[in-house]
Amino acid sequence: LTYSITKVAGLKLHYHVTTDRPALINMTNHAYFNLDGQDAGSILDHELMIKAGRYTPVVEGAIPTGELAPVAGTVFDFTDFRRIGDDIDSDTKQLKLVKGYDHNWVIDDADGSVQTVATLRSAKSGRYMDVLTDQPGIQFYAGNCITPEDGKGGFHYDVRYGLCLETQVYPDSINQPGFPDCVYTPERPYDTVTVYRFYTR
C-alpha cells in the first residue's frame, strides 16, 4: 500500500498485491473523518452524497444477504446530499441491526475507472471531501460502535464522532455468486486506487 499526496489536496491510496495462487483479496481502510476537526464532536450534522442507487442489506452480524436493494424511498437514499443524523436512529430494521449506518453501497456505473463515488460536506466548517475509487462498492460506517476514549490533544472521542467511507468489493463477495469477483491470481494481480480529496466552498 502506497500513500501519496496529490497536487489537488488529495490523499491517494494505491493498493497492489501479487499472489502465487488464487487468493481472496478485498482490502480497504478504516480511517475516521470529521470535517469539523478532531475536537468537534458528532458527525451527525455532516451531509453525505453517494453515487449509488442500490445497497446490500445485511443480516445480524452485518453479513450481506446477497440482495442488491434499491435505495429510493428509503433511509439509504444518499443520491443527493442528506444529513447523516436525519434518520440514523429511525425504527428501520436494517439500521437497528448495526446501530446505525454500516452498510455497503453499490456504485452506479462502476467500470474499473477511478471516479468520484461519494462527497461529504460540513456546513459548519465549509469543508468538503470527495471519495474517488475504481472499486464497485463503498461502506459507509457512521461510527456507531466507537469505544469512548481520549484521543489527540486529550479530546474525548465518543460514538459517532467520526465516520468511515471504505472503498471495496462488496463484503462476502466470495459467497455471493451475484457479487463482483474477489479472487485474484498470478495473472490477475490486485491493483486498486482510492483518493480522498479535500476542498472548501
Describe this structure in words.
The protein is an all-beta fold. Helices cover 3% and strands 37% of the residues. It has one helix and 18 strands. The chain has one helix at residues 93-98; strands at residues 2-5, 10-17, 23-24, 47-50, 54-56, 58-59, 63-64, 69-70, 82-83, 102-106, 115-121, 127-133, 137-141, 149-150, 156-157, 164-168, 183-184, 190-200. The protein has a seven-stranded antiparallel β-sheet, with no helix packed on it. It is globular, with a radius of gyration of 17 Å. The model has no long low-confidence stretch (mean pLDDT 97).
Number of strands: 18
Which percent range describes the beta-strand content? 35-45%
Class by alpha and beta content: mainly beta
Counting H and I runs of at least 4 residues, what is the number of helices? Answer: 1
Q: State the share of residues found in helices, binned by percent.
A: under 10%
Ends apart, CA distance between termini: 31 Å
Largest sheet: 7 strands, antiparallel
Could you write a compact summary of the structure shown?
By secondary structure, the protein is mostly beta strands. The chain has one helix spanning 93-98; strands spanning 2-5, 10-17, 23-24, 47-50, 54-56, 58-59, 63-64, 69-70, 82-83, 102-106, 115-121, 127-133, 137-141, 149-150, 156-157, 164-168, 183-184, 190-200.
